[in-house]
Each structure stands twice: as structure tokens, then as C-alpha cells.
Write a structure and sequence with these properties.
It is a single chain. This protein is of the alpha/beta class. 40% of the residues lie in helices and 24% in strands. The chain is built from 13 helices and 16 strands. The strands form four sheets. The protein has an eight-stranded parallel sheet with strand order 5-6-7-8-9-10-11-12. It has a three-stranded antiparallel sheet with strand order 1-2-3. α9 packs parallel to α11 (274-287). The longest helix is centred in the first third of the chain and has 19 residues, at 97-115. It is globular and about 60 Å long. Bound molecules: magnesium ion.
Length: 361
Amino acid sequence: MKISRIEVGEVHIPLVTPFKTALRTVDSVNDLVVRVTADDGRTGFGEAPPTAVITGDTLGSVRCAIEDFIAPSILGMDIENLDGVMEKLHGCILKNTSAKAAVDMAVYDLYAQSCGKPLYQVLGGRRAQIETDLTISVNPVEEMAADSIKAVAQGFHILKIKVGKEGREDVRRIQAIREAVGPAVRLRVDANQGWSAKEAVRIIRSLEDKGLDIDLVEQPVKAHDFAGMQYVTANVATPVLADESVFSTEDAIRLIQGQAADLINIKLMKTGGIHEALKICAVAETYGVECMIGCMLESKIAVSAAAHLAAGKGIITRADLDGPSLCSMDPYEGGPSYEGPHIRMNKTPGIGIVSAPCFTS
Ligand code: MG
């Protein structure tokens, strides 16, 4: 089963409501879609968002990396030689993790199809379904409380609250949400690098003193503030999850060994796909550090690749894969099913996606 063609298209999907974090505001998914065709006619799909503020990737840079570097280096290679394909894919260009992720997942899709199994079974097969949280965008307090009540009414048991714009107001936001949704809902807080280390400790301790029962705090300080991550992790009881601080396996090892986080957030767009994400899982398993699987503003192709990874690996104990829930429509055929917080893996081989609107034939 050889790689005979690699095509790049685009998908545009309006969001139900604008997505707001400490870093940006976005109102639609505008992603690149990749289709890899094998010589037996089977197809694998991949996707990459241009998350310039986090990965540095733009639509143009992702397309160029795929068309000018990645595609020429793996065309004609045998899918069954997965390790060889991955070595070429990851070795042909530095960084460009989103472009690598899009092609990597399409190759894994084809590899699982060649095994005749859904991808999660090839990756470990831990469970056939996972539960995701839903993101509550950063907005005025009353609006965030109302959005949280709506999310719980839609069946979500875990909410991820975006904060990090204003210190004291952030505490009010979380308190208002806790009061609105009651004690049974799990709350995660994502500061998206918005606090200083001392500010983070003050805010998180205040959340602890108020008994707001926060599941975890994600990326309290700047991505490269290693000492800040260490300081926050050492000085609060709430688990600290590293997101923007960890792209590669080397980052994960450094953070874990330096006790600069309690949990690791794996995203395929940071790792450059499933191949590198599996290495982070292996490191995390070795140290007994649980992982969350997350996504950027991605639609069903990329989120489904991440969902299969999470379903495959036991060390991934938390899922933040709400991309498809934020989209106003699903333009693809096939793949896992998304019902409220429940993501159920397809029983068909691969990731399960069989068509994307940008590829008509
Ligand atoms: Mg995050």
C-alpha cells in the first residue's frame, strides 16, 4: 500500500458563537484539509488549523510545508513502513507542527485501514468512547455564568473556563460559574499564559480558599516561563496542567523532571501528530503523569484523530475535544459520533472520515 497522491484543500465552518481566550477571538474554523491517497485507492484524511498565536502556523505556511517539503519526501513510500514514513515526515522540515500533524494523521488513518481496524484499536484500544469538556469563552461574568448553565443543560459534566485577562475579575468569574452550575460539575480553568507567577499563586489560592473545587489550572504563566511554572506548581494544591509550555517530547521530559507541571496537555498541532504524541504518552506513563488531550479550533477530522489517540491510551485521562461542538455544522461524512460530551469511536477502519467537501472526486 503505497502513498500515491497528497492533496490540500480548505474548509470554512462558522462557529456557533465567537471563541474568546486571553490570546484571541475567532468566529469560524478556517482549516487546511489533507487527503492522502494510496495506490489501492484508499484515502486517509488530515486537517490543520492556522493557530498563528500558539504554533506560529498560518494557512500559507501549512500549505507550503506540505506541498513543497512533506509531500515530496514521502510520496511513493509504503504505508506499512510506518516508522520509515514518520522518520521522513518529521525529518524533512523543522517545526511546522500543524502541517506535520495533518499529514501524520492521514497516514495513521491509512495505516489503521491497512490493519482493518479503527485507529484507536491500533493505538492501544483502551476504550471505545471518551467524554469531553466544553469551553466557556472569556466574557463578562454574567454571560459566562449563563453560557455555563446552557452547557450543563446540553449534557456537559465538565466545563473549561477561559480566564487570564483580569486577575481579580477572574476569581469572580469562576465563583459565579460555580454558584450557577452547583457542586457536581467539574470545572477546569485555562489562563492561556495570562498571569504572572505570583499573580497565579494568589488567584489559585483564592479559588482554593473559597472552596471552588477546581479540577486543574491550565498554563497559568507564559509558555517559556519555566521557573514560573515551577513556582506555581510548588505553591498551590490545585493540579497545574502545562499546555503552551509543552510541544515536544523533550519539553514534556523537562517539565516533568523539573516538577514544572502536574499534568501534560497533548495536542496534535503542537506535537506534529500522533507519532510524537505517542512518545509523550510513553514518557508520561513512565513517570505516572496523567495527560489531557486537547485541540485547537479544529473540526471533525483533526479532533477525531485526537479522540482515537485518547481512546487508545490509558494515560490520557482527560479530554478537551470540543471543536466539533463549537462548529455550527459538520461538513464531513463518517468518523466518530459526537453527542453532547460523548465521543464514540467508529467501528469502521481508520479514523472513519470518508469524505470532505473540498474534494469532490
Ligand atoms: Mg489551553
